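Exercise: predict the fold of this chain.
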Amino acid sequence: MQFDQLKRRRELIMMLGGMAASSVACPFAVHAQQGERMRHVGLREGHTANDPVVKMNIDRFVSGEMSRQKIPGMAIAVVKNGEAVVAKGYGLANLEDQVPVTTHSIFQSGSVGKQFTAAAIVHLEEHGKLRLDDNIAGYLPPTKARWGSITVRQLLTHTSGIPEYEDEVDWRRDYSERQLAELVGLLRRRSTPGQKFEYSNSGYLLLGIIIRMITGKFHADYVRENIFEPLGMKTARIVSDADIVPNRVAGYRMSKDRILNQDWVSPTFNQTADGCVRLSLNDLLAWERGVRARALLKPESWSQIFTPVVLKSGKTHPYGFAWEIRQESGQTIHGHDGSFQGFEAILTRYIEEELTIIALANLAEVDLAQVTQHLAELIRQEQ
């Protein structure tokens, strides 16, 4: 269906040129001198992540990838040992107005935004407002749905068995939270609770409704007051087409080698808790600092967030609360990516190396995992 491109389903979250349309000026011409994708850009011996040569190689690689993947605009950050050694925009935030991307440009989070919902739920647990192993039935509005033994924890870890809601809704219609809860609750379960990891945006949609039922506040307001504001995420906010948003980036999609504006969806689906956040690179850098410092939440809460889920079989799956947790070549990697409404986002933390890569793009279905992996390699080569 058409809107499958808006919310890409990822049961295993990845961690980690010219335009054909004559009516749109090619945004990649500025990078034409880069030629083919750069595969072997490296750091010379003795250079550090802060070295101008390193930054030049990063610029060359990012520009080449934008040309290869036809990405109008990107924002990139490289954080090493807690210091943002690279934080900058590339290309255009808006093709029609030819506005350049900066670190203040407001992209969309996609499912990276699930991390804020998860943090809000854990914050509520710390304050005695819920328990993660409680059944969700006690926290959701009364409807025809029967929730059985599904727990809050199982929503957080994608082990509830609840299927995706995307194929079941009219994306151009508005729904109340009660209507969405009932619709999701009446879907046929894919598995019994706790049996399998099956990535589900539906679970995080329900978590947003739970936040309102407990606090009386719209989930985005609770997140703003208890997550964004304390961490200094000054421009992070829920998606809204109506609000005036300074530095708003336009989202795009490709169709038959032409770049087009994103499809319109009703306000309902711009305000669910499964990843509908507008934010800048600066906001994600503030989030990275908070995660690194284990701010806002208790140590035991952060430990839960980064603990792989244990299935009923006793096996673990490499996913915590909105973070994929995996091992690769002896390296622990925490991260998440996201895709929605003409945007892609990824945040990847290489724990032992104290290295974080953040990338934001305003074109649907581009491969940011590959970009972040290559950027990580560039930084490693100087060590």
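Check your answer against the key: The domain at 2-380 is CATH 3.40.710.10 (Beta-lactamase).
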